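call fold(seq) -> tokens
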Amino acid sequence: MKDGELEIKLEETVNSFLENSKGKNIEIISHFDTDGITSASIIIQALKRLDQKFSLRIIKGLNKEIINSLSKEKIILFLDLASGSLKDIEERNLKKVYIIDHHEIDSKKIPSNVEIINPELTSKQKISSSGLTYLFCKKIDERNKDLAKLAVLGMIGDMLEKEIDELNNGILEESEILRKRGLTIYPSTRPLNRVLEFSSNPFIPGVTGNPKGVFELLREAGLNPEGGKYKNLIDLTEEEMERLVTSIVLRNPEKKHKDLIGDLFLLKFFGKLEDAREISAKINACSREGRPEAAIGFCLENLEYKKKAESIHTKYKQQLISGIKFAQDQKKINGKGYIILNAKDNIKDTMIGTISSILANSPDYEKGTVIIGMGYDGKEKIKVSGRNCGRKGRNLRELLSNVMESFNGEVGGHHSAAGCVLDIKDEEEFIERIKRELELEIVKIGEHQNL
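ret:
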């Protein structure tokens, strides 16, 4: 969607939304990840300024059951989801539906009662749902410019910071975010030893989750504590930064020097300059621990929820380190160009996507390798997360959609990061089918190369 097209679409949709929602109840349904939470935080503050009635639901994923539970009398607003559910939405015959989303769309046929803002319909511009929601709310009222930093947090949560200039649309300037070059391990505003111990992207073999390994790396890099305390990452000199990067690269040769240096985004949060990636990680941790209300309260800079978010994040990081260790030690299904990690109930369903992403970023697998992670969601469902190593390879949303045609479950995501949910009873059959699909693709590629 070119800038001009996006502007026109936003203008039309905002006008329709304001006209249709006046005096009505709005039901907001948003996704539970950082992008969905920041999108919801932006829209609820904009609606409060309009003195508009609304209710909010944060969900892990959208399915037919949830769609069928929606009131036909309310205006429905979906954020960061629903692009893959247009058929079910049409069948429910809801009164009026608005969708602000950036995921792939399963149908080019938009139901007559649906208005959708999604760049996938035109130019496939990379922009987060929080970015789109912010632009939508700014059209409603220029005062909503003060919500720009939440849009940037959502972009960072969806790992779109490298494209932040292309999709900026003025959001970065309006957010008053401070931008610096530096080591992209976060949080840059905390002591080195703590940052390295909990570093999951990049994963540093022998260091992540290992205080002794952290001490060895820092000693080797000539970075010693001063007055019993290590420097904050952001306070390192250029020469100290170089030594640290060299020590990390020696332990993870897949990561090149240029991969580790990038833009850091610092913003004022609760009156203090913070690393945007850490704020994003805290929001994510709250939702994945089943506390979306803490995530929303934290986004709204409520002091009570700040304490809750920090406590949840500490616990989440510890669970993440345990999950990484399990994923490293656990026997996996190894195929040509793919790995399947069936963690069963050893890794929480809300964490399997993060662990799959960490494996995809580790030096152990070639670019283009498909990582399929599976974790139980209670006793009835399995969460499946697919990731491409190096963000290269086949379309994972398409792959999972093909496999899930035989099962009862929903699929969502993008080319290099997609997921689905299926019944536990279908576990073995799903594994066999996805292996067949992945091996079939290898055969196709081989045949193509021989032509």
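Residues 179-325 form one domain.
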